[in-house]
Structure formats: structure tokens, C-alpha cells
Amino acid sequence: MPNHLTQGRLTLTPEIADALAGNRPVVALESTVISHGMPYPKNLETARALEAEVRGAGAVPATIAVMDGRIRVGLDDDALERLASAGPAAWKLSRRDLPVALAVGALGATTVAATMIAARMAGIAVFATGGIGGVHRGAEHSFDVSADLDELARTSVCVVCAGAKSILDLPKTLEVLETRGVPVLGFGTGEFPAFYSRRSGLPVSHRCDNVTEVANILRTKWELGLEGGVLLANPIPLADELDADAMEDAIGRALADADAKGIKGKDVTPHLLAALERLTGGRSLTANMALIRDNARVAAGVAAAYAALEK
Ligand code: PSU
Ligand code: MN
Hints:
The protein is an alpha/beta fold. It is built from 13 helices and 12 strands. The chain has one domain (10-309): Indigoidine synthase domain (Indigoidine synthase fold), CATH 3.40.1790.10. The chain has helices at 14-21, 32-35, 42-56, 77-86, 98-104, 112-122, 139-142, 147-154, 170-179, 211-223, 244-260, 268-279, 283-310, and strands spanning 5-7, 10-12, 26-29, 60-67, 70-73, 91-93, 108-110, 126-128, 158-161, 184-187, 206-208, 230-233. InterPro entries: Indigdn_synthA-like (IPR022830), PsuG (IPR007342).
């Protein structure tokens, strides 16, 4: 990899390093959604489409993954192909796994938590994903609460998502975010979106109607020394929304299937995503691809507005 910039364990592409040095907008993108969230080759198609979406909206995309003992910030076409074709054979890396994968030289995809860590190290303020991890249904028994929530509490990055899937317990997820001091902003909505549906009936902490307002909130939070993330929830585009009752039915079956098979720990979320895709005849996948592209577009707008404030 000639001409790549290295900073500690990070390897940045020259384009990303230049953009950051020149205070031009950069958007981080995660890779677990590529390896564990979608099947090959739709995952590769989505990864490329996301990068194009970010570029089309005037920012530089930075897809993040772990390869050959380095945190790669910005993946070229070969690297994207390598990760997408590995699929679930790549490690799924959250905060606890990141040092292990680097030390042993594993191929790893970063979750929301690990992508936030890498983005922060690189100096990238805005990150787009599909859905965040959260408090799982039945967490009072399983204790299954995603490390994404703790990361949002401590790492200063704005995460643009379409809310969270109702494979999770959304009221409990929002309670934890409130306790841990994470602003949950609705983009053009006062309601926290439920991934496939634009509505959940649950309020966000504040509604924002434009990217400048979001950027001002980011700057104010971090200037105050209040470290930690901000969640920007952007509802799925109207045309791509799925029927809420049908999805609830599919989610019930996916949960029952995971339970019957005794799926635990970090395998739960990927298992549920794959089951949903089967149960909806691929419609969940199409919706997922559409919403994540829209999030990439919005994130690019936020990154541009934030960069403009720093000028
Ligand atoms: N939710 C989705 N799609 C995803 C994920 C979550 O709707 O692809 C992925 C993200 O990478 C997220 C991770 O950070 O799963 C959360 O995993 P866990 O629940 O094991 O913390
Ligand atoms: Mn978990």
C-alpha cells in the first residue's frame, strides 16, 4: 500500500488524510453491515453505492475495517471485495475485540462501536450506518445490551442511523441513551424511527429540521467538554417503508427461531438479520439498502455543515 498515511495503528488513504487536513467533509462508514448484515454480492453493491452516495453529496467516504494488523480508514476496491466476500468469516469487532483482532492480524469488520472508535482516532466527526445495536428484547434475563450504547455515551462522533430495528426493545434502548447522556435527534421528525418504519410512537429528545442545526448541536456539545456521541435518527424514505404489522410478525418469528437454536452473544444480531431477510422474501434487504443510502446522504450534509462551522 504505497502512499498511505499511517498514524499509530491507523492507515488512512491519501484522499481521506488530505480532506481531514484541509477541513473538508468526511463521512465514516461501518463494515459489519457489509460482512454480517447482508449477503454477498448485495453487500458489495451496497458498500459501493454508499461511497458513491457520500461523494455525490460532496463528502469523502471512509469505510473502516481491520486488515493485516492495521485499522484501515478508507478501503480501496480490492479491500472492499475482500471483506464483502469473506462475509461472516470476518470477525465482528466491537470495542472488546478491536485490540485482539489487530494483535493477531485477523480480518475484521467494525460494528458501530468499533467504527466510532476508529473515526474518533482519525478525526472524523460524522458516521453513517443503518441501525444501531441496543437493548435486546428480554434483556432483563439475557443482559444483552449492545456495546454500541456505551460507545455512544463516551466517544465524540455523530452517528446517523434510521433508528433501531424492533428486534430490539426500543423503549429500553431510548432509556439507556437518556441515562448515558446521548442526545437523540430526529431529522425532520419528533419520533424515533423504527428502521423499516418511519414511526415508533416514541419521542426523540429534539427534532432538527436542517443539517446546520445538527452541526451547531455537535459543536456546542463538544465545546462544552461533554464528550460522547450524538445520535441523529433519519427515518427510512417514505417510498421504501415496509408494513409495520407484517414486519412485527416476521420479527416475532425471527426471535423465536434464534431462541429455539440457542443463539447467544454477538451472533444474535446477525442471526436475526438473516432470518428477517428469509422471512420477508428479501424485502427487508431492499429496504435496508435504501435507508442506509439515505443516511449516507444526510451524513454528508451534516459533515459539510460541521466543517463549515470550523472554518
Ligand atoms: N443493526 C442493524 N444492522 C446491522 C447491525 C445492527 O439493523 O448491521 C450491526 C451493526 O454493526 C451494529 C451491530 O453495530 O450489528 C450490533 O451488534 P450487537 O447487537 O451484537 O452489539
Ligand atoms: Mn449483544
